[in-house]
Design a protein that fits this description.
single chain; 257 residues; five-stranded mixed β-sheet; elongated
């Protein structure tokens, strides 16, 4: 193996600011200028597996993202982004370790694809900060699944008197004296629909409990918020900052059959 030749390939295909540092037999640390949002460098290692060379992050990418995201956040929309990013650049996911083989001695091409994949994967942390709506709804469902057993949880529930789903509820938790109706509230339109639905259920004489989880309660106007909190028993201003409180609330409700 000619380290200088590989280094030249890396520089010609990716960028000039690349170093290769030996770290034992047939193992090298590849130092690049590419970083996560917090300034830490991507972790990249070039190592030999049998007769083949591979580039690996040795699971450092997901470990780094875990500092900003909870375990249940690696699902839904984010999981799709991660898997799509890896597949698009022929990177394997070995139970959290990202690996790309070097084909036909094309070290530069392998590193180029690997860096592109890691960059796209790292973008999931920005999704958390922006809290885009699709991710909020995915996070909401993933969080409920982590707290409530499948046999007690029903998503997109509708009453038999509502076959068209005009008053559909995001989630219903069953097997208790009064089922718990749970609403995910990304914006004012959804808050208004939830308010109307709860009033209809009361009019029908249904026995239930209710909880609303906002994406960002501060974005809801005062009148809309007031009408909803008048009819809904429990609300949380956002999901990300209240997961522990919501988990405690659900645990208490699930324990009181």
């Amino acid at each position: 193996m000619n380290v200088d030749s590989i280094k030249d390939q890396f520089k010609n295909r990716v960028c000039e600011q690349i170093e290769i540092r030996p770290e034992g037999l047939n193992r090298f640390l590849v130092v690049t200028p590419f970083r996560f949002g917090d300034g830490d460098h991507f972790g990249i290692v070039l190592r030999k597996e049998g007769d083949q060379w591979v580039l690996s992050d040795e699971a450092s990418t997901l470990m780094h993202l875990s500092y900003e995201l909870d375990e249940q956040d690696f699902s839904g929309n984010r999981a799709s982004i991660i898997e799509g990013s890896l597949a698009g650049f022929s990177v394997e996911n070995r139970e959290g370790e990202f690996v790309i083989p070097v084909s036909e001695g094309r070290f530069g091409d392998a590193l180029f694809n690997f860096v592109q994949a890691l960059t796209k994967v790292s973008d999931v942390s920005f999704l958390s900060r922006e809290r885009v709506r699709s991710t909020f709804l995915e996070d909401f469902r993933a969080f409920l699944r982590s707290q409530v057993s499948e046999d007690r949880l029903m998503f997109d529930w509708r009453h038999e008197r509502d076959p068209e789903g005009r008053y559909q509820v995001d989630a219903r938790i069953n097997h208790m004296k009064r089922p718990l109706l749970v609403y995910a509230l990304p914006g004012e339109d959804k808050v208004n629909v939830a308010t109307i639905s709860l009033h209809v259920f009361e009019k029908w004489g249904l026995k239930f409990q209710s909880i609303g989880v906002f994406e960002d309660q501060t974005s809801i106007s005062g009148n809309v918020l007031a009408r909803f909190t008048d009819i809904c028993e429990k609300t949380y201003s956002n999901l990300e900052g209240n997961k522990e409180r919501i988990a405690d609330y659900l645990k208490d409700k699930l324990g009181s059959h």
